[in-house]
Specification:
417 residues, alpha/beta, 10 helices, 18 strands, disordered N terminus, binds flavin-adenine dinucleotide
Length: 417
């Protein structure tokens, strides 16, 4: 049964219409701001987190508006890449293994209901390791405990199964045969398509940074709209520091990340699925996704790049990174030595201090939720994040300590991969 707006809002205080007007130094909405519609929840940002949050809130009976400045899965968004890995292995960070398991179920259910099952490619994921490797050893233990299908393979078996890979100093690996990759921006658009079909109202609007002092009654857009709601979720990924400069300016670190696509030799199927799995070489902080539909063999350093502005940062890959990635590719995949670059992407991670997500109420307002900090591994978890945030908003209750703002420090000490 759908609750009334009054029942739904548990926190005290009156709605303050107009409280979200821009500060003088920020972009101001056009004159003649309209009164706007009222929703149970307004979600700002239709990346993977916002799209799933909006959809799950709608499924929970809420009237939801979803707003995005550039469009779902746009080229500037962190969710805007061609592909994203979905793996279950997370060392001993069991919550993320559980969320990956749950998310894969929900991704598959969504794709199936839309008749778009190919948005998940079950290529398998190969996690390479060298000797005594605590992270990989802990990963095996977690996968075993949670019953995730996996194999632990020694060097001889790796060489036999994947002769197109020169494993170099890697001596063993975990293989997750049921994991793989998601066709990322299409997947986000699929979530929004489903959410809209079920009644979420999508608005392509840029939201002005809100003035958060007590309960927020409405947000304003650059075009002059006003959107009223009982609860506001800001799932703006790398834009969170721009929306909340005082709160998050020093707690979310957007970094420049480069992605390269190499063209395998003509007629050579060894670098696409099913011959090639997703692979991760943790010791060299680099990973890749097989050549899918001729788009190229993707290789991306996972090391954090320099600080990056998601609106205006240059999206042209650098010759320096290209040359170091080429050198790695030539070593690990000898048949791709000197392969032509057929594409490149520059995206940004939106890192928290340690890689744990941010899911919390704004300290100055009970009805404002900043959600983000995907930290280079968030995409796969979109469905679980949506479920978790919707449950906190609908049922109440505090988020896990690891997601709280209080645990987000101002220096980066990455511990979640
Ligand atoms: C190169 C790269 C590789 C990655 N690889 C993986 C991977 O293999 N597996 C994995 O799980 N994760 C991966 N990630 C991480 C993952 O993609 C991100 O954590 C995730 O996409 C973040 O989603 P988000 O919804 O928080 O942010 P975003 O996708 O950035 O969405 C935020 C949205 O907010 C909108 N917005 C911002 N400001 C406003 C405003 N003022 N008004 C209205 N709208 C606004 C933007 O337009 C945008 O659409 C990778 C990231 C990158 C960059």
């Amino acid at each position: 049964m759908k609750t009334t707006r009054r029942e739904f809002v548990k926190s005290a205080g009156t709605g303050a219409l107009g409280a979200a007007m821009a500060r003088p130094s920020r972009p101001t909405p056009a004159p003649g701001v309209s009164e706007g519609d009222a929703y149970d929840v307004a979600v700002v940002g239709a990346g993977v987190f916002g799209a799933w949050i909006a959809y799950r809130l709608q499924q929970g009976g809420r009237r939801v508006a979803l707003l995005d400045a550039y469009g779902p899965g746009n080229a500037r968004a962190s969710s805007g890449g061609q592909t994203r890995v979905i793996r279950m292995g997370y060392g001993d960070q069991e919550i993320y293994t559980r969320w990956s398991i749950r998310s894969l179920e929900l991704w598959n259910a969504l794709f199936h209901s839309l008749g778009r099952s190919s948005l998940f490619q079950q290529s398998g994921v190969l996690w390479m390791a060298r000797g005594e490797d605590p992270l990989t050893t802990k990963t095996v233990a977690t996968l075993q405990r949670l019953g995730v299908p996996h194999e632990t393979l020694g060097r001889a078996e790796l060489d036999r199964r994947w002769p197109q890979i020169d494993f170099g100093p890697n001596t063993w690996a975990i293989h997750e045969p049921e994991s793989g990759f998601l066709i990322a921006f299409h997947a986000v658009q699929a979530v929004v398509q489903m959410a809209k079909a079920k009644g979420v109202e999508y608005l392509e609007e840029a939201v002005v940074p809100p003035e958060v002092k007590g309960r927020l009654g409405s947000i304003a857009t650059l075009s002059g709209k006003k959107v009223r709601a009982d609860v506001f979720v800001f799932a703006a990924g790398p834009w969170l520091p721009k929306l909340f400069p005082d709160l998050l300016g020093e707690r979310i670190f957007p970094t420049r990340q480069e992605v390269f696509y190499f063209g395998p030799p003509p007629g050579d199927s060894r670098f696409g699925p099913p011959a090639m799995p997703v692979w991760v070489d943790f010791a060299e902080e680099i990973y890749g996704i097989p050549d899918f539909k001729g788009r190229g063999f993707k290789v991306a350093p996972d090391r954090h790049g320099t600080a990056f502005d998601p609106d205006t940062g240059s999206r042209v890959v650098s010759p320096e990174t290209l040359s170091s990635v080429r050198e790695f590719v030539g070593r690990r995949f000898p048949a791709l030595k000197g392969a032509p670059l057929v594409g490149g992407e520059v995206c940004q991670y939106e890192n928290t201090s340690n890689g744990d997500f941010l899911i919390d109420r704004h300290p100055d307002s009970e009805n404002v939720w900043p959600v983000g900090g995907g930290s280079g591994h968030g995409f796969k978890h979109g469905p679980a994040v949506g479920e978790y945030v919707a449950a906190r908003i609908i049922q109440g209750g505090a988020p896990d300590t690891r997601f709280r703002l209080a645990t987000k420090e101002k220096v980066q000490k990455r511990s979640v991969y």
